[in-house]
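Course assignment 3, question 2. Fill in each field.
Student: A.L.
Task: Predict the tertiary structure for the chain below.
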Amino acid sequence: MSTQDLPSQLAELVTEFHEVPEPDKLQLLLEFSRSLPELPARLGEHPEELEQVTECQSPLFLTVELEGTGPQAPVQLFFSAPAEAPTTRGFASILHEGLNGLPAEQVLAVPDDLPERFGLTSLVSPLRMRGMSAMLGRIKRQITALQGA
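Answer field:
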């Protein structure tokens, strides 16, 4: 498990998952699902500003905002996922905790194989893993679009 190419806060999360015995990894994911921040009211009133990640088995919506311009602009992530979708919420919460506030260039440099690095592939269905990959892909695409705007 390599974490050298990850931002430190994301590397810490990967390490945390690898330090937990395999039977407890899903419990850790569930704990993350409970810590996903609620949408700010301004976004909750305008759900059309969120993009649905259709690859997720449960309805998940996200949006990205940049605080400023350029490659050093901090990224702000916002997710909406139902409480009855703990795996999806857990993945969103991991991405929020690991990426939120980082400079855009660091988020764009996160390797696409990030979801596999958490050691969950034997515990979570491939469809659900694809959902986390799709979340990361949407985040990167939105950052790129915002930088080009």
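Instructor remarks: The CA atoms of residues 4 and 11 lie 8 Å apart. The chain has a mean pLDDT of 93.
Grade: pending
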